[in-house]
Each structure stands twice: as structure tokens, then as C-alpha cells.
Specification:
Layout lengths: L2 E4 L6 H14 L3 E4 L18 H9 L5 E3 L7 H6 L8 E6 L2 E6 L17 E3 L6 E6 L2 E6 L12 E6 L2 E6 L5 E6 L7 E3 L4
Parallel strand pairs: 1-2, 2-3, 5-6, 6-8
Antiparallel strand pairs: 1-9, 4-5, 7-8, 9-10, 10-11, 11-12
Length: about 190
């Protein structure tokens, strides 16, 4: 299974258009949206090209290929513009012998874990910081933010391909973090810190 992950779009039309372009050529079966899709939120400046209605229109073109969870900036009003559900606080994607627990990160995160089994993965956003690591047998993966990156990182998205989770820069697809998610591929690291 090949999956693409994008988080914290915050209503940025240019970032969303780039995500949709990458998704179209990626060969991924699903686009997993990790919350904060349309609204910029009161703590963030307006992202470049802020246009929530157009972002919704763009995402709706691939609605049947989206798995999404609710972020802390997402609301029922946002749901009215979208043709796919975004109000669940988490989603679970089952792989052979392993579960990906997808959540935005404001309710569940590495410091407040849901019940997870060894080799499960917590996929989260919210911090706008890329993460790809394993701790105590649990995989932690944050694709960063496609619109408002923090910590000196570039805008980024994530991929799951051949049992490896990778974070790529949005502009040039450079890999900046990765972790293998099988018992045999356990080394996770940031490859190019800012």
C-alpha cells in the first residue's frame, strides 16, 4: 500500500494545489489528511494564498481517495464545504500485523498516547514539525505542514511506500526524515535538519 500524508493546510491554495499535483503523480492509493484543512486558526498568520473555499473545491476533486481526521482548527462549518468526512478525531489504517493510528495531534500525541501495540504507528500533525522515529516499539510520524512550517523546516508532506515512512519537502521532494515501519527497519532519523 502506498499512502500520501498532508497536514496543516490551513486554507493555503498554493500549498493545496501542490499537494494535489504530487498526489496525482505519486501513485498513492489514498491521500491521508491529518487535520487543519481550511482555517488558519487564531494563532497562525494567514498562509500564502489563503482561500478556504478554493481549497475545499480542490480537495473535493479527489474526495473518494481521501482519509481525513479533524484538527483543532477544523469545524462543522468546514465540513459543509467538503465532500468527505473530517469530523472524526482519529482514523485507523490496518496493515498486515500493524496499525496506523492517524490523529491531528492535539488530543493524542507522543506525550499522550492512545492504546497502541508494539510496531503500531502514531501518525500526527499539529506541531508543523517533521518527525520520523521509533520509541519503545512505537513509530511516530509527523509529515510537518504544507503551508506554515515551523522550526526552520521547509513545507513538507509524507509518504508511506515499501514499509518506509518518509517526509519530503513540498517544493523539491527532498527527503528530510524517514523511518522503516517493520520490525527489521527500525532506525528513524532526521536526515537534513535546518
Amino acid at each position: 500500500m502506498k499512502l500520501m500524508f498532508a497536514s496543516d493546510l490551513h486554507g493555503s491554495l498554493p500549498a493545496t494545489e501542490k499537494v494535489l499535483e504530487i498526489f496525482a503523480r505519486s501513485g498513492a492509493q489514498w491521500l491521508v489528511l491529518v487535520g487543519d484543512l481550511l482555517n488558519h486558526g487564531p494563532r497562525n498568520a494567514l498562509p500564502e494564498g489563503y482561500n478556504p473555499a478554493k481549497v475545499a473545491e480542490g480537495l473535493n476533486t479527489v474526495a473518494e481517495k481521501i482519509i481525513a481526521v479533524r484538527g483543532n482548527c477544523d469545524s462543522e462549518v468546514d465540513q459543509m464545504l467538503l465532500n468527505f468526512p473530517i469530523t472524526a478525531p482519529f482514523a485507523q489504517i490496518l496493515l498486515p500485523g500493524q496499525r496506523l493510528f492517524v490523529t491531528h495531534g492535539h488530543l493524542y500525541n507522543p506525550e499522550k498516547l492512545p492504546p497502541l501495540a508494539p510496531h503500531d504507528a502514531l501518525i500526527f500533525g499539529h506541531t508543523h514539525l517533521p518527525v520520523a522515529e521509533i520509541r519503545d516499539g512505537i513509530y511516530f510520524f509527523n509529515p510537518g505542514s504544507v503551508s506554515i512550517p515551523k522550526g526552520g523546516f521547509e513545507a513538507s508532506y509524507g509518504m508511506l511506500n515499501d514499509d518506509v515512512l518518509t517526509v519530503h519537502t513540498l517544493i523539491n521532494d527532498r527527503v528530510i526524515a524517514q523511518v522503516g515501519i517493520t520490525p527489521y527497519l527500525t532506525a528513524g532519523k532526521i536526515l537534513n535538519a535546518p
